[in-house]
Amino acid sequence: LLITGMGGFFYLMFRARLVVQELEQRKKTEEELDRYFMGSLDLLCIADTEGYFRKLNPEWERTLGYAIHELEGHHVMDFVHPDDREATLAAVDNLSRQKEILNFVNRYLCKDGTYRWLEWRSYPSGNRIHAIARDITQRKQTEETLRESENKYRQLVEITTDWVWAIDLEAVHTYSNPTISQLLGYQVSEVVGTNAMPLIHPEDEQPVSDMLKHCIEQKVGWQNVAIRWLHKDGSVRLFESAA
Fold this sequence. Notes:
This protein is of the alpha+beta class and 243 residues long.
């Protein structure tokens, strides 16, 4: 009985030691995860499948301007841009059905009344959602600026009285503005996708071919080059070109 009792006592001590070690390891792991969570430059979020914020890292405060307590416990839809709510509700519904959501983009309201674009990766786990968001507002603004610039450039190209065209490395037209119809009699659809050489005067075809080869090899363009082009009616038109 004494030996059995001592054996049981040492076993319990051993089990207790294992439990203590396990708790210490778990605490250490939680502290490491918490340091990662609090120090991340991305916006980290734990929400429930009903769409309520449960835990957020400090980056939310730096990005949106709210104190953490002004966000935690509130529904995500309280901060989503009206135009993005339908898509966001659909994403939350998919997450509640345990479907991952990757590269989802929507706009969130800042405390100063402006909106920031966020790109999300969200992973459901039971009744919890673990999500990572990144502020992509600058990227969106850059894209919009480029889009506006391209639209302005295209409008200018479309209305200019000069013939503006583009070809690939095989001399196939990839673009032509509508001015070609006034200058050479062709519609844009008749030119784009076809080789440019048959439209060039036979005596200029070889010099132009050599010039194109040189430009491609040396990665240079040309200025003030006179080229004879064939009109749709068979007449010859002389153009000075730069490319």
